[in-house]
């Protein structure tokens, strides 16, 4: 057999590729469950860290703290659906009226927190995070952002405490979405935070992400937090809130 | 197909020659300090000991098995697509290593990020395949791979040791300087140690130390 003949070369290349492809397929499928478990665990840790909780065992803490996992559509709870089934990347691209969005309700130290996943675009790729609201459903309690490929030292700084520590106590809802504006240097008051020098597009991306992702929750959170004496039929409440 | 029949005499698994394959890369033919290969990743992931250790082990696994596999099929590889075949073997191994890291040491795999994928382009691996495993039997090639991977990992750990100790005051994330009371003497963590330039300087110091010790490495004027 001539190792350097054309036909042998082709046959060898094809054979090699088939063997390698099979090996990779086996590895990828076999390790998928463990990898998915890691991603799920990281997600839980991120959800918890948006309300300032960190610990050795995020899974157990998550079980203890997160009381409700809801899916909302147009301010109403979609029965029998779990947030895990929602692909945020697809969800945020839909118009707000058609969007099913997840909401996590946490209770710790006697306080209720609403945790909202957000996702948007940075400069180079997706940015995402979790924003937690206090029990009034309007005031920010904490924020946690992450990114795929923003520039280190510039856009990537949105993931640092320097940026996220500005969010607590900002007011995102009054009767409508009032939002958080990312400003250049002169942030003040309840609705503004300082952007990142050199990370303008990422900063603006955060602002757009928050607006796009928080709006769908406004009706539900307002309805949920009306004082107990108010009328109780959900329909009226939703209309009033809108 | 080459029909040369190897007529070597029987050699022990860890004969003197074979042991030399393992130990040489630590000294006279260290891939980083002597051959100056694989510098890029050596600079990038030596801020902390743990990623450096995982990276060293990953490279060792890849060099060892890519050497072994290419050596096993060395007589069947068509010469014209030799490099492509090597790349396919190395790339497949790296992807498998990456998948395993993602499954079992997720936090470290996040720290190593792109550098695991970039093991494919690490010159040490292709260098060892071309220079050694294509012309040597599998067991020797395997040892050579282990030796070179370990030699690479050892230098990574030396550089990471100083960078983490002086830059963060820890080793493998355990605080070292604080219990020793070094901070009370007025030492502050040196942020410069965490930046890429210090990796280069540390590496240069290691090379200097090695050349001073091993006279045979010093070039004649």
Describe the structure.
The complex is a heterodimer of chains A (242) and B (221). Chain A is α+β, with helices and mostly antiparallel strands. Chain A contains seven helices and eight strands; from the N terminus they run H-H-E-E-H-E-E-E-E-H-E-E-H-H-H. Chain A has helices at 6-49, 58-65, 88-91, 161-164, 200-214, 218-224, 234-241; strands at residues 66-73, 76-77, 100-108, 111-121, 126-133, 140-147, 181-183, 192-194. In chain A, a hairpin with a 2-residue loop joins strand 1 and strand 2. The longest helix of chain A is centred in the N-terminal third of the chain and has 44 residues, at 6-49. Chain B is mostly helical. Chain B has one domain (32-212). Helices cover 59% and strands 2% of the residues of chain B. Chain B is built from nine helices and two strands. Chain B has helices spanning 16-23, 39-44, 49-72, 82-104, 106-112, 114-117, 123-131, 138-168, 196-213, and strands at residues 170-171, 174-175. In chain B, strands 1-2 form a two-stranded antiparallel sheet. Chains A and B meet through helix 1 of A and helix 4 of B.
Brief description of this entry?
The complex is a heterodimer of chains A (242) and B (221). Chain A has 242 residues and is of the alpha+beta class.
- Largest sheet properties of chain B: 2 strands, antiparallel
Structural class of chain B: mainly alpha
Strand order of the largest sheet of chain A: 2-1-3-4-5-6
Distance between the termini of chain B: 46 Å
List the keywords.
heterodimer; A: 242 residues; alpha+beta; six-stranded antiparallel β-sheet; two-stranded parallel sheet; 8 strands; disordered C terminus; B: 221 residues; mainly alpha; two-stranded antiparallel sheet; 9 helices; disordered N terminus
Map the helices and strands:
The complex is a heterodimer of chains A (242) and B (221).
Chain A: H1 6-49, H2 58-65, E1 66-73, E2 76-77, H3 88-91, E3 100-108, E4 111-121, E5 126-133, E6 140-147, H4 161-164, E7 181-183, E8 192-194, H5 200-214, H6 218-224, H7 234-241
Parallel strand pairs in A: 7-8
Antiparallel strand pairs in A: 1-2, 1-3, 3-4, 4-5, 5-6
Helix pairs in contact in A: 1-2, 6-7
Chain B: H1 16-23, H2 39-44, H3 49-72, H4 82-104, H5 106-112, H6 114-117, H7 123-131, H8 138-168, E1 170-171, E2 174-175, H9 196-213
Antiparallel strand pairs in B: 1-2
Helix pairs in contact in B: 1-8, 3-4, 3-5, 3-7, 3-8, 4-5, 4-7, 7-8, 8-9
């Amino acid at each position: 057999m001539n190792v350097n003949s054309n036909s042998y070369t082709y046959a060898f290349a094809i054979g090699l590729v088939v063997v390698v492809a099979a090996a990779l397929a086996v590895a990828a499928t076999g390790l998928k469950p463990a990898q998915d478990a890691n991603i799920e665990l990281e997600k839980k840790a991120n959800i918890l860290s948006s309300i300032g909780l960190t610990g050795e065992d995020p899974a157990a803490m998550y079980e203890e703290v997160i009381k409700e996992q809801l899916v909302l559509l147009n301010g109403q709870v979609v029965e029998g659906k779990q947030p895990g089934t929602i692909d945020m990347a697809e969800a945020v691209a839909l118009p707000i009226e058609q969007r099913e969005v997840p909401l996590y309700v946490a209770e710790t130290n006697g306080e209720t927190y609403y945790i909202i996943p957000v996702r948007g675009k940075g400069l180079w790729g997706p940015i995402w995070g979790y924003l937690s609201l206090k029990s009034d459903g309007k005031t920010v309690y904490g924020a946690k952002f992450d990114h795929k490929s923003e520039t280190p030292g510039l856009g990537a700084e949105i993931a640092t405490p320097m940026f996220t520590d500005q969010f607590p106590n900002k007011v995102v809802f009054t009767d409508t979405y009032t939002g958080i504006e990312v400003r250049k240097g002169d942030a003040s008051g309840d609705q503004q935070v300082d952007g990142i020098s050199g990370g303008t597009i990422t900063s603006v991306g955060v602002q757009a992400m928050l607006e796009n992702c928080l709006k769908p929750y406004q009706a539900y959170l307002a309805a949920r937090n009306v004082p107990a004496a108010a009328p109780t039929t959900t329909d009226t409440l939703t209309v009033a809130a809108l | 197909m080459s029909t040369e029949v190897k007529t070597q005499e029987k050699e022990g698994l860890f004969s003197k020659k074979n042991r030399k394959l393992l130990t040489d890369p630590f000294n006279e033919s260290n891939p980083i300090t002597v051959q100056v290969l694989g510098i890029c990743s050596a600079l990038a992931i030596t801020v902390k000991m743990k990623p450096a250790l995982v990276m060293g082990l990953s490279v060792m696994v890849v060099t060892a098995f890519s050497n072994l596999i290419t050596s096993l099929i060395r007589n069947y590889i068509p010469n014209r697509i030799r490099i492509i075949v090597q790349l396919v073997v190395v790339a497949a191994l790296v992807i498998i290593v990456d998948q395993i890291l993602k499954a079992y040491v997720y936090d470290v795999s996040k720290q190593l990020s792109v550098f695991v994928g970039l093991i494919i382009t690490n010159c040490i691996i292709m260098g060892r395949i071309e220079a050694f495993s294509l012309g040597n039997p599998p067991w020797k090639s395997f040892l050579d791979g282990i030796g070179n991977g370990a030699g690479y990992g050892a230098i990574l750990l030396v550089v990471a040791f100083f960078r983490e100790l002086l830059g963060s005051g820890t080793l493998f994330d355990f605080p070292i300087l604080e219990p020793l009371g070094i901070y009370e003497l007025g030492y502050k963590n040196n942020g410069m140690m965490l930046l890429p330039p210090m990796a280069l300087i540390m590496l240069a110091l290691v090379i200097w130390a090695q050349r001073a010790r091993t006279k045979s490495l010093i070039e004649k004027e």
